[in-house]
Please model this.
Amino acid sequence: MKVNLTQRRANILKIIVRDYIASAAPISSDIIFRRYNLGVSPATIRNDMAHLEEEGYISRPHTSAGCIPLDRAYRFYVESISGEQALPVEDQLHIRELFDQIEEEMDRWLKMAALLLSNLVGNAALVTFPKANKCTFKHIELISLNDFLAMMIIVFSETMIKQQLVSFNEPVTQERLTTIANRMNDIYSGHTSSEISRLMQNSSVEEQRITEAIMDAMVAEERSGYNRPHIEGVRLMLGQPEFVDKAKMLGIMEMMEAGDWLRPVLTKIYGHNKIQVVIGNESNATALNDLSLVLGRYGVPRKLDGALGIIGPTRMDYQKAISAVNYVSDILSYLISGIYSED
Model:
């Protein structure tokens, strides 16, 4: 983000954002003059604020009122604080202690991560179940539904299970399906879709049909984005002053119940290693215009990958949210690597 601001105007903009995050009340030039020793008069501060308004960083709800930050101001602020501060040591120790108290079970870890993030920042938090970067075949079962149709149940090495119907041009018995499944489990186990394509030699018509269905399912899984997230702390987010309006609150609740409202945003961060901050209309989704998201990734490099993050009003404590997401993602990655260690 290219910014053409003098150092004083940049400092004033940071003050406006920080104070508004803390108070949710418009910030006036008099407040800045009284609270901060900038070495200039209130008139100079007012002039600088007028410039910031012209540049689209801030707005004034009323002509004589103080100002509030716009999305551009939050973007400037986020880029100025990135990597500036780690999570306080007491919070780190508390998080480790809570994770130590729960069993080694993925679902429990992920729910704990979302709950901790929500409570730390006072907003909603999300976490997705990790998906494989590259699917590896583990096991298949074939169940006859009639002479020309079978249910294919595929298990990937990353413990994912997919079900799919497979049709045939000629009748196929359950006995034949079981024989095919046993043969494929022996040959394909531990292989990726591209490797399986090279193993399709001396196969019958039925085996070729099933193998193609397996490969299609594996490729589709590799291309898919993150799974639907588990969300905690919606009530904390809706308790913020921004959502006191009942219509706005109901709109957000309806959006969250819709199901795939976060998929476009999560798809954008897939493949990015750094924390991603999406502010207001940067999401290009009208339903998210009043919200910001601080999103990170966790998992095992080149094997498993999941997303986690904070959802809240654009007036959120970005510094704390970024440091919290960073730390919890590191904890999850460490825990999961103990189960899915690289070969």
Notes: The first strand starts at residue 58 and ends at 59. The chain has three domains: 7-81, 89-128+226-337, 137-223. Residues 89-128+226-337 form a domain with the Beta-Lactamase fold (CATH 3.30.450.40).
